Amino acid sequence: MVTWLKEVFGVDKPVIAMAHMAPLPGDPLYDDQLGMKGILEAVRKDVRALQAGGVDGIMFSNEHSIPYSTKVGPETIAAMTYIISSLQDEVKVPFGVNALWDGIASIAIAKAVGAKFVREVFTGVYGSDMGFWDTNCAAALRYRKSIEANDVKLIFNIYPEFANALAPRPLRDVAKSTIFYSLADAITVSGSAAGIETASDILREAKAGLPESIVFCNTGVNIKNIEEKLSIADGVIIATSLKVDGFIWNPVDPYRVEDLMNKVKKFRETL
User: Fold this and answer.
1) How far apart, in whole angstroms, are the C-alpha atoms of residue 62 and residue 18?
2) pTM for the model
């Protein structure tokens, strides 16, 4: 079955790597001395390292904008749009956007910069580190329609980090309803936080409910478990294990990227 995943990335089981931005203007940890120029150059170095290592796609994210908000300000949207736009000529792989944790902002930025996809929590109600987290999928999809961004694929994180559903249901049921009633283009499931491994039984449960839909593994993928995760999921989103010393706030380590992608390529030959 040819899915939008194969059409966008040109490979089976794509690896989407994160390009994290340092704290942006308005964030508590924003560095005035580093400034936007410094942030841009750091992201540029990461993008070059990821592409040289052979990743299939890149997703830009304001990962360092802690503590996170479920509705970002215009300064965040402006800064992310500026950084991604400044790098467009250098990005040779399909790319996406994740403005944590604001689905409508992610779609708006994606439309502006020509991104192919976004990842966000679009459905559910959660008790979270950010407080009461109430999503509005209907508003997000209608917003995508209103700005003529239907070509921007929406990857729904249905098992988000830092949060617990206030009305929990079996994951398989959530996965099915997210695809069929919330119109997700794909779903992704996560561990409890960035860098924490997504349990394989959770992945299997989600995929079992959606054998013909796209399911991503979202957190904790590394060179030791990449084959296991790709044997279950349709693709992976990866960040922490590709950083220097495997630490999320560090820059991308090009050797880690190359080693992981070499293993991925060998795995694909067995498919």
Assistant:
1) 10
2) 0.96
Q: Is residue 225 classed exposed, middle or buried when 0-12, 13-18 and 19+ CB atoms within 10 A define those classes?
A: middle
Residue-by-residue pLDDT tens, the chain, 271 positions: 458 999 999 999 999 999 999 999 999 999 999 999 999 999 999 999 999 999 999 999 999 999 999 999 999 999 999 999 999 999 999 999 999 999 999 999 999 999 999 999 999 999 999 999 999 999 999 999 999 999 999 999 998 888 999 989 998 899 999 999 999 999 999 887 777 899 999 999 999 888 889 999 999 999 999 999 999 999 999 999 999 999 999 999 999 999 999 999 999 999 8
Short-list 8, 35, 15, CA closest to 23:
35
